[in-house]
Specification:
three-stranded antiparallel β-sheet; 65% helix
């Protein structure tokens, strides 16, 4: 079998995407917005434990990278909706697949960790 070549530019591109979506909150935000546009307050209420500051930073990062749009409506008070862009909806496919995989394999991973931790304690 021919070895796979990894170009530095490819690795940088993958690293850049994973650093954005691989944080604690981005996958949750992307998944929620996959159901349709949401207001900031609805997102905050739906994500247990996220602070206003962290949600703001997460949304700004996702917007900067083109995954999310922010639409401000000229009402009093102003209404702001967040929605996935085309690339955000495209990203939703592997994000959902990874989420499904994680739920299906959670117990296997926990068992492997317990075995590993037990083996390390016995070796000490």
């Amino acid at each position: 079998m021919k070895p796979i070549q990894h170009l530095s530019s490819d690795c940088r591109a993958v690293t850049a995407v994973l650093s954005r979506i691989g944080d604690k909150w981005s996958v949750l935000v992307i998944t929620l917005l996959g159901e349709g546009p949401m207001r900031f307050s609805a997102l905050k209420a739906a994500i247990d434990g996220i602070s206003q500051k962290m949600l703001t930073a997460t949304l700004r990062g996702l917007e900067r990278d083109g995954y999310v749009t922010r639409t401000v409506y000229p009402t009093v008070p102003p209404r702001v909706d967040y929605a996935l862009t085309d690339i955000g909806r495209d990203l939703l496919v592997p994000v959902r697949a990874l989420s499904d995989w994680a739920r299906r394999n959670r117990f296997r991973v926990e068992e492997a960790r317990a075995r590993f931790d037990g083996d390390r304690r016995e070796a000490s």
